[in-house]
Amino acid sequence: MSAAVPSRPFRPGGAARPRRSGVAPSRVTAVVVLTVVGLVFAVPLVALAQFTFRQGTDGALTLDHYAAIVDPVNAVTYQPVFDGLGASLLIAVITVGIVLLVLLPAQIVTALRYPRLRRVLEFVCLVPITVPVVVLVVGFIPVYQVVAQVFGSGAWTLAFAIGIVSLPFAFRPIAAALTAIDVTVLAEAARSLGASWWTVTWRILLPNLRRGITAACFLTITVVLGEYTLASFLSRTTFQTALLLVQSTDPYVAAVFSLAALLFGFVLLVLIGRVGAARQRTPKEPA
Amino acid sequence: MTTTAPAVPTSLITTGAAVELEAVEKRYGSHRALAGLSLRVEPGEFVSLLGPSGCGKTTALRALAGLEAIDAGAIRIDGADVAAVPVEKRDIGMVFQQYSLFPHMTVRQNVAFGLEMRKVPAAARRERVVEALDMVHLVDFADRWPHQLSGGQQQRVALARALVTRPRVLLLDEPLSALDAKVRVSLRDEIRRIQTDLGITTVFVTHDQEEALAVSDRIAVMNAGDIEQVGTPEELYRRPVSAFTADFVGQSNRLPGDLRDGDVFVYGFRVPALDAGTPDGPVTAFVRPEDVVFAAEGVTGTVVASSFLGSIRRTTVRLDDDTVVTVQHEVGDRRTTGEAVALRLLGAPVAVAPLA
């Protein structure tokens, strides 16, 4: 038996890049496909980026639009965007809170105690994706009359509605993380060793679900930052509604903010990927 | 696999606790998983619960662990009723069928987990973890992650993790069933060695009769939520009290017989019947393959197959009435397919069941 070889968890390292199998497309086909797909995504983004530097219609480039954002003279003009951004970030925090305090415990309890209800929970959580938001919002309007009476008409109250809309996106990664480990056996093993339910959740389950939980939170944040319909119909000012407002007076600055939001979303997705990659494991029973 | 067995750490040696299940019942809806099961396990004893899938053996073990609440009856450890004590306070060690090591903890952290829960000081914890890992020959693997271990190694770590807390009872829920045959045998023997050295009361659930026969002090054969027979491996094999046990433990030929005054007549041979309660008349007799021998004259038939099993040979004979009989005999005695043979029954007592 060889000596111990300590290494970091879930980073087996040296994982060879998978070799091209016989059914994989040729290199040329792969390059062509990736180039076309890349262009489809890149052209609008590059155009958007280029637009933020454009001066007039003669094609000259300038940094004026970026400078204008921080110029005190324009503070009043752009204030709605900053207000909207603040509201959206607050909504994001509350929505993530809903995911962590309502959805996550529900999924853990279902997996541990009521596995038969898993399909029901999945169905309920996936319903919002099958109903167009415009249809959902029609149902929300009377509900929000009550919400406004109870909680006031602050933009943060949108978190309740967006929490529902983001359910499908938050549910999937957590469900995937739950099926990747045998939660029941791990919980029973920990309890047989003397751990209380609280310790089981905190010390055993959450660390093993971290990847799914992080992905669920990031996806929820991107849903919040991209949500326009709910805010518009329920008359709340968020980042997206403010952008539309500013766009009518200054399209360049609206484009700058859009680009920033896209980059932020991109960074979040990269982070999800990194967290995921860090947790990839080798098969449980090596030869 | 390492064969030198280090002495078990004296700190883990226990006096063993008596375990008692009394008229335990467990229902799932209308299904009675445990139908008034009673069993007493003496301190330091290794008892296997053996039976087919769905017989309730795992439910019984889980009830003993506290992972399943029981509907009626009592569960006692050292005389104290623990039926209402939650699993984390029952002071048991358990090894599961599935690999149950915590994937985000190293081997060392896994083994230390139970000690942390019991608030053992760090220095003592480190020492005891090393002792426990040494006992299962895995001290060099202390800083590995579970996914870097083979299945057999993972189960040995699970065993060390279950024993390091010095539990009163060790419960093993088919811990070998996910392993390949060779590892299964070596780990089985290792578990038995450690159990004997520690003197810990152990309940082992398995559906593999060979496993149960090899390691147990006593075996409880289970059927339909209750115990069919409890006894030493030899008793169960040589003196099964029911057709179920005779059929489930070891291999048996089912031969037509006629029961008269405690003896059963099978193809003209008279052998004592084990079950005195069966009424006289036509019965099925369960005759072990080693209790049938080739003879110059007797019941005749034709050899249909013969298999070499290392130290013995088993030959299947189709009798003239189409009954199939397996004969266990010496390796040197070769029989060829199609050969006409005559069989004789030795006088060993056999289990009988009324003809359905």
Explain what this protein looks like in three dimensions.
The complex is a heterodimer of chains A (287) and B (356). Chain A is mostly helical and 287 residues long. Helix content of chain A is 72%, strand content 1%. In chain A, strands 1-2 form a two-stranded antiparallel ribbon. The longest helix of chain A is centred in the N-terminal third of the chain and has 39 residues, at 75-113. Chain B contains 8 helices and 20 strands. In chain B, helix 2 crosses helix 3, helix 2 (107-117) runs parallel beside helix 4 and helix 3 (122-135) packs across helix 4 (151-163). Chain B has helices at residues 57-65, 107-117, 122-135, 151-163, 181-198, 209-215, 233-238, 243-248, and strands spanning 19-28, 31-41, 46-50, 72-77, 80-81, 92-95, 169-173, 201-206, 218-223, 226-231, 253-260, 263-266, 269-272, 281-287, 292-295, 299-308, 313-319, 324-329, 340-345, 351-354. The N and C termini of chain B lie far apart (49 Å). A 6-stranded mixed β-sheet of chain B has the order 6-7-8-3-9-10, with helices on both faces. Chain B is of the alpha+beta class. The chains are: A mainly alpha (287), B alpha+beta (356).
Put the structure in a nutshell.
The complex is a heterodimer of chains A (287) and B (356). By secondary structure, chain A is mainly α.
List descriptors.
heterodimer, A: mainly alpha, B: 356 residues, alpha+beta, Rossmann fold, 2 domains, six-stranded mixed β-sheet, 34% strand, globular
